[in-house]
Every structure is written in structure tokens, then in C-alpha cells.
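Thread: quick sanity check before group meeting

JM: Hey all, I'm pulling together slides for Thursday and realized we never actually wrote out the predicted structure for the chain we discussed last week. Dropping the sequence here so it's in one place. If anyone has concerns about the input, flag it before I start.
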Amino acid sequence: MGTVIQLKSQDGMQIPAYVAMPAAPAKAAVVVIQEIFGVNQHIQEVANAYAQAGYLAIAPAMFHRVKADVQLAYEQADMSAGIELKSAVEALPAPGAMQDIQAAITYAQQACGGKVGIVGYCWGGLLTWRAACLLQGLSAAAPYYGGGMTTEGESARQTQVPVQAHFAQQDAYISMDSVNAFANAHPQAQVHTYAAHHGFNCNHRSAWDEAAAAAARTRTLAFFAQHLS
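JM (edit): ok, ran it. Output follows.
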């Protein structure tokens, strides 16, 4: 359903991105930000699902600046590799890979002519939160269990667009105390929690929770319909 294109970031680097187009003209666009496992089969499926819902969906390769063609699975070795790659990207001098998200937003705006939202998972949730606070051209952001976004430093950022955040109540990486603190710090944001574990949206992982994933998707689609129309 999708194709791979090359984005040109602000510093001139070419960044691959998976693009899924809807059957009819796109009503808007959604930038999909990967977990620590790359633009793998699951992230491509997420993009395809947004395309089926009528959006142009684009998933930039967020590891490309440190390693090309990353598509990891979910075993312990994959987890370790993904954490190492994430650390390498996070260590890049600013703006680092954030400019690659900006390139995806700009492409999406030009390609569909409509508004652009952003959704991301795990590390991608953190990047989605940062994008909502720092980047231009977005109209809505939906971070899922963004690792690190509820820390004091990240929560101190101020979003420029409406945010709908999704967290897992049994998340081993993100405490509910920090989620509650984030919600208190950002009363304008919609914060939803689910009786599930970290990674509940990914049906390729043991943490997948069908009910939580379906509820979160329904809320996200309604949120995007409100803010991207």
C-alpha cells in the first residue's frame, strides 16, 4: 500500500520515509513516529491504517542519521539494539532528528494541501510531544506512552497545538505518578489511561491489548477529525 520516498531535511540530508496514500484524495495528513524498532512492519501497518481512514500518512526513518534501513523485531536483542540507536540519535547536536520530523510535516502539508497531525509510540511518543512544542505546521498531536515525556524537563515544555496523550496504567517505564503530574501541568491536554502495559498498541508484541488499542485509536481518530478538518 505504501511507498518509500526521500525527504530533504534542513541540513540537506536525505531521509527515507514510508508514505501511505488513501484511495480518495486525502482529507489531511498524519505523521507517524516510530518506536525504537524502526519503520518496521508494525509502523508501516499503522501508517496504512491511517491511510485507510482517509489520511496521507508518512513515517520518517528516525534512525537514519545514525544507521540506515533499521527494521527490528521485539526480542531482547532487538530491544537492546533499539535502545542503543535511540541513545545515539538523542546525542546528536540540536536540532538532530527533529529536523527530519519537520521535513515530514512540510512534505505532508504540500502533498495533501490540508492540515497535519502527528502520532507516535514509545520513543516516538516523546518525539511527538517535542514536535508539538517545537515544530511548525502541526494542528494536533497524539503521543502514545511517550517514554520520557512525563519527566520534569520534558513536561516543562509548552505545546503549540492540541494534545491527546495515551498512557498505560501498568507501564513499567512510565509511572502513573508522573502521568498525573503531566496531566496537572497541562490541563488543556486530553490525557487518557488504559488498563494495559507499555506498548499496548502494537499487535506484534506480547504487550498488545486489543481493547486498549481499539479505544485509543477511536479517540485518536475523533481527535484528528476535530482538529484536522
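AS: nice. Residues 4 and 18 are 5 Å apart (CA to CA). The mean pLDDT is 97.
JM: adding both to the slides.
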